[in-house]
Amino acid sequence: MSATQGENRAGDQKAASSSNQASGQGESQKAQKARKWYPLDDELNHKRKYKVIRPAKLRPSLTPGTVLIVLAGKYAGKRVVLLKHLSQGILLVTGPFKVNNVPLRRFNARYVIATSAKVDLATIDKTTMERVTSEGYLSQKKDKKSTKGEEEFFAQGEKRQKRKIPAQLIEDQKTIDKALISTIKKEPSMIHYLGSSFSLRKGDRPHEMKW
């Protein structure tokens, strides 16, 4: 075996060892990257979400005095008169109460349909309207939560006491009803239209109806 052949073999061994070291370093770097980007424990990124309150856009058909049809809730199918727009797309309506038993009540604009019928609101007292549309007028006052005792525990099966309606609300309801009914009676068949409930029958096509 010549000296030149020995030198060539030594060079090949060094090259192979250097290539093995380079491949080992590459694998270790890949493992480090994998550990870096794919940890065993999931890291939760807590991001703050800020809610932006945007003013509600009401439909142009929802104008004060318009007769609406309620679509959901206790008074579904009832026809009511729109009195005023409140904040965040809430509508203040009334039956009137003497006509269809719908009192002064707030409804979301999403759950009503506007009709082409209208009632003049000029006869309603302005001071009464301002008081009725003020904030917190129709909101219920909730009592503070108290720990249940033995008497409350055994009284669970009994009938609950009815909520007392404020005297001011009753007077305002009568004042608004009187003004509206005097105007409604001037138009033929309007009082019967408000007193009747809306319903769909088999074969009716709501998209073809003229509201």
- N→C terminal distance: 108 Å
Oligomer: single chain
How many distinct helices?
6
Helix content: 25-40%
Total strands:
5
Radius of gyration: 37 Å
User: What portion of residues belong to β-strands?
Assistant: 5-15%
Strand neighbour order, sheet with most strands: 4-3-2-1-5
> What order do the SSEs take from the amino end to the carboxyl end, as H and E?
HEEEHEEHHHH
Taking all residues together, what is the mean pLDDT? 77
Largest sheet: 5 strands, antiparallel
Q: Which overall shape is indicated by the principal axes computed on the Cα atoms?
A: globular
The parts where pLDDT drops under 50 for at least 5 residues are none
The secondary-structure class comes to alpha+beta
Descriptive account of the structure:
- With 211 residues, the protein is an alpha+beta fold.
- It has helices at residues 3-37, 97-100, 126-132, 150-154, 167-184, 190-195, and strands spanning 66-70, 79-85, 90-94, 105-108, 112-118.
- It is globular.
- The relative contact order is 0.12.
Structure summary:
Helix content is 36%, strand content 13%.
Which terms would index this structure?
211 residues; alpha+beta; five-stranded antiparallel β-sheet
Sequence-ordered SSE layout with sheet pairings:
Layout: H1 3-37, E1 66-70, E2 79-85, E3 90-94, H2 97-100, E4 105-108, E5 112-118, H3 126-132, H4 150-154, H5 167-184, H6 190-195
Antiparallel strand pairs: 1-2, 1-5, 2-3, 3-4
